[in-house]
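#lab-general

N.A. 3:47 PM
ok so I finally got the sequence cleaned up, no stray characters, all 262 residues accounted for. can someone with queue access submit it? mine expired

B.Y. 3:52 PM
send it over

N.A. 3:53 PM
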Amino acid sequence: MKPQLISTHSSSRRQVVVGLAGLSLAAVLADPAKVARAAASLQTVTNKTPSGRSVSAALAMPDQKPAAAVMLVHEWWGLNDQIKSVASEIAKQGYLGLAVDLYGGKSASTPEDAEKLMKAVVPAEASETMSSWVDWLFKNPNCNGKVASIGWCFGGGMALQAALDRPLDAAVVYYGNVARSADELKALKGPVLGQFANEDQWINPKMVDGFEAAMKQAGKKLEDYRYDTNHAFANPTGDHYDAEDARLAWDRTVAFLKATLG
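B.Y. 4:20 PM
back already:
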């Protein structure tokens, strides 16, 4: 069964990026050495939240600036090299790629540790962190004033929350928590792209059905694709990785960003 579309209304760093040019995202993510090289090409940046907390992120810069920006939110594993390498790919597509850290520098390698880190996140602090980075991007002279969010798993729900907290031009949600009411979704400015899995037991079809209905009720535009696969199908390090669907979802993500950000 095919996925269905539902439409509801530095010099060293530059050398690394150039060396990776021409490789597909799938080719990079499938090779740990390439992932490490791509991650190493990013610059660590810091910011202060209104409450005084110091937060950090990894920044990938495109060749041509100013440009639109995409804020990336990590999975429950934390800000690891995989997510940083996706930010590098975002930059190759012509955008500022800012991979934010909601775990305070921590990351996990086991599901048990990942769950602990995810449950330790204070929602209000996470929202403040993301909003602070969105504001930072809007003020950045290398940004042309357009900003989108994208996230996977834990980060998928957070990417949607970021678009509710600030007027973002677009949001991309990969199998993230989308249990929101129509009243909440009215705060969205731009369209949402959803990438979901029919076999997902957490972000299940019932939740996605409710999200579709709420987006329609709120009068917001949604592009919704569902794949006959499982949660985290775009993560090549996981047991549920589906190379074909991951590649298709990424192509649709890039097309969506081009349509919304230019």
